[in-house]
Write the structure tokens for this entry.
Amino acid sequence: MQEQRIKLDLNSLENTLNQLRNGIDDFKNYSTTFRSSTQDRLAGFNSDFVTKVDALLNSMNDDVNEDLINQMEMIYQEGKTIFDKMKKLDEEVAEAIGGNPK
């Protein structure tokens, strides 16, 4: 008789959540740190070109990036909530049947 069991790959789910977290953090850094550090480096120069680059960098600081970051944060938080509940349930079931949770 074949043993039946439910298998949750919590490690894979956790890795996926970590990748999402890292992606969000990278995107945040690119969208904020890059602009501000570039503008700081150009601050001492006086030219029409630098003025236009500064205006371009300012225009990159729009609400679209913030909306995208907020949506990604919401997806991450919901995924983390689901993961935490699944992990807790897995531990409870393992304890109830005398096994070890993964």
Remarks:
- The chain has a mean pLDDT of 80.
